[in-house]
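Archive entry. Fields below.
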Amino acid sequence: SQTIHQWPATLVQPVGSPLSLECTVEGTSNPNLYWYRQAAGRGLQLLFYSVGIGQISSEVPQNLSASRPQDRQFILSSKKLLLSDSGFYLCAWSGGGTSYEQYFGPGTRLTVT
Amino acid sequence: EDKVVQSPLSLVVHEGDTVTLNCSYEVTNFRSLLWYKQEKKAPTFLFMLTSSGIEKKSGRLSSILDKKELFSILNITATQTGDSAIYLCAVVRNNDMRFGAGTRLTVKP
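PREDICTED_STRUCTURE:
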């Protein structure tokens, strides 16, 4: 069966510090991978998605970036965090093709102080 | 601009009540509509709807899609306190999903 891991679970970082969140998927190959952010009490905002190694699509302009160095690894990064980057970050995967349903990791709660 | 709108934004009911959650959408290249339940952390998948008029059912939950009127409903019958959660509607377009803001359902004993 497939599992998706995210770490860390929680993170408190000062403004201006760098960020690296990691997501890995097990039990499947060539998944589509996604990064979402959820602000308190709001829906999920798609940040990035990837259909393959090195292929990243960005949905909104921001100071975040994403990379997919391996088939089942997806990394969310920032060089300098802003207060507005605080939120709940979720990684998800789907099988691609007509397998539209996405399955989510446990999430990382980021607080920028 | 693509939109996914859920209503109501929040709802408080008592155990045993039946609730209907709404999701309307305007997206280009519609592929499918999905419902998720989010309790404390990650959303969990409930239903995927691709064809109009075909009800999906799982226990006390059911959902249906109307592709002509561009909406879906999620019904929960005989609600229980464990149904308390945020229910998210998402529409798949090409390679990504667009989420609604969610409906926060609170079921009181």
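CURATOR_NOTE: Chain A touches chain B through 23 residues (CB under 8 Å).
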